[in-house]
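subagent[fold] <- orchestrator: predict structure for attached chain, return C-alpha cells only, no commentary.
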Amino acid sequence: MIIFGLRKKISIILPDDWQNNNQKKYPLIIVFDRQNSRSHNHIIHTIDYLTASEQMPRAIIISIESDNSRRISEAKSPISSKSGKAHLNEKYLFNEIINLAESKFKASQFRVLIGHSWYGHFTTSMFTKNINNLSAVIVFDPFFKQKNVSLIDSISTLNNIKIKHTKYFRYSIGRDYPEDYRAIEIVKNKNTNSKINIQGTYFPRAFHNAVPGLGIGEALYDIFEYWSIQQYTFFRPSNKRIDLFAELKNNMINHYGNNLDFSLGVLNGKGWGFYNEAEYLKAIKIWNVLINQYPSFSEAYLYIIEAQQQLKLDTSKTKIKFKESLQLSQYYTQEEKKELLSELK
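subagent[fold] -> orchestrator:
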C-alpha cells in the first residue's frame, strides 16, 4: 500500500476458521512497526497463545511496516514539526487500513491498536482523538510529549467525556522514561470516568526494546478479561441454564459496545458437558449456537446427530445440513472432509 508517496508493506493474518462465504465478523488488531521482527513476532505469537488458551477471541491481525528513517515524522503532529505527517497517517489508518479490514475481511468495529515508542505516541494520540472509533490501545514506552503537544493533558480530558462503553488504554514503560510513567500514573489515579479504563506497568530495569515483550501479554489479558469471565460463567459445570448464554452475550455488548463471540472450544466443551450428563436437548442447542458462530465448523452437526440418535429423533435433515456445510467449509483439508464423511451414520 502507498502512503506519503512511499510503498508500505502490510501483512494480514486471518483466523483459521475465516472464510469468504459466510458473514462471521472478527475483532481487528492493528500492530505497528512490523519491520522490528523480534518484537513484532513476539506480539503475534502472544496473540496466538492467548487465543489458543481461550483468553481472547479470534481476531484479524494487520501489521504495518514503517521505514525506520521516516517513522518519527509519521508519528509527529504537524503542529509540532513541519515534517510531521501524523494527520496523513491517521487518514491512512482509518480510510485505508480499517476500511480494507471491514470491506474485504469482515472485521468488526472492535478495534485494538498496538504501538511502541513513536508509534506508542501515535496510537495514544489516536485514542484521545478517535475514542469512539477504537476499543483499546496498547502502548509501549510511548512519548507522551512533543513540542506543542501533551498527550498527558489529552488523556486527562477523557475523564470528562460521556461514552456508553468501556475503552481500554494499556501502557508499559521501562527504565528510560520514569517521568512519563509518573505522569500517566497521576492521570490514572485521578480518573473517575468508569468507562475509561487506564492501567499500566512499570519495568524499572527494562531497556526500551524489551518493553513490548514484557507488556503485551498482560495488556491483552486485561482487555479481554471481561470476555473471559463471561464465557467461563457460561462454561462452568454448575451452570445448567441455556438462556444464560444470551444474557452473558448482552453483558459483553453493553461492556465493549461490540459483539465478541465465545470461543469455539468453550461452546463445544459445554455441548459435550450437557451430552455427558444425558442433557441431549441442551447439547443440541449449544452445538447449534456453535454452528451459528462458527459456520465452518461442520463436525458440530455430527455431534448433533449423536444427540438426536440418543433421543431417537429423525436425523435426516441434520445429515443434509452437515453435507452442505462440509462442502462449503474451508476449515478442513480434503482428507479431513473424507474422514468426517466416513463418520456419518
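orchestrator: received. Logging for downstream: The longest strand covers residues 107-116. The CA atoms of residues 234 and 243 lie 10 Å apart.
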